[in-house]
Design a protein that fits this description.
This protein is mainly alpha-helical and 184 residues long. It is built from nine helices and no strands. Helix 7 packs antiparallel against helix 8. The protein starts with 5 loop residues before the first helix and ends in a 10-residue tail after the last helix.
Length: 184
């Protein structure tokens, strides 16, 4: 992120409203994140739920075409792209509960459909799943209110159980807790 100098701030402050509009329109046309942020915060065009649904559609789209010989590499890429969509959602809305819901949605797709692909020699997929699961775990235990622990307990315990069973060869997974219950 660039640091905004006092000269820069002064120059922007001296622009006329018409010039500012022109700049905003230009950058919003070329930058999806800026458009989404302005649309969410100022125009009130999108609600957090609208952006949540869009992110869910992006996640589903990433897992649409995974045919081929080495599916684990494609799964790792799909997880990476999905996490990128979640990060954009998080940056715009700053809603940790909905971020956790998106992570659960992503991990349910992975664990319900592709858990048999875990534990193979393609550890990039295992690592992506472990890191995403750990992100959800940390979000639930450290950033959300404890009242939400019950909402996620069943899912996170299922994810941790499968990870421990299939990917304990990874040091990262081995060090993860067995259940969410430790932090109650």
């Amino acid at each position: 992120m660039p640091k905004l100098t006092s000269d820069f701030k002064q120059a922007i402050s001296s622009l006329s409203p018409a010039e500012l509009k022109k700049i905003i329109f230009r950058f919003s046309r070329n930058n999806q994140a800026m458009y989404d942020t302005l649309s969410f915060e100022y125009v009130k065009d999108n609600t957090a739920i609208d952006l949540f649904e869009e992110a869910k559609e992006d996640i589903e789209f990433n897992f649409d075409d995974l045919s081929g010989r080495v599916i684990q590499k494609k799964l790792a890429k799909a997880i990476g792209n999905s996490v990128q969509s979640i990060n954009e959602f998080k940056k715009i809305t700053k809603d940790k509960k909905l971020e956790a819901d998106l992570l659960v949605f992503l991990l349910k797709i992975v664990f319900d459909t592709y858990s048999k692909e875990l534990g193979t020699c393609w550890s990039i997929f295992d690592s992506k799943v472990a890191v995403t699961t750990n992100r959800l775990y940390n979000l639930i235990t450290k950033k959300l209110h404890q009242d939400f622990l019950l909402d996620y307990e069943e899912d996170i315990n299922k994810f941790l159980n499968i990870l421990k069973k299939e990917c304990s060869h990874l040091n990262y997974v081995y060090k993860m807790p067995n259940t969410l219950e430790k932090f109650k």
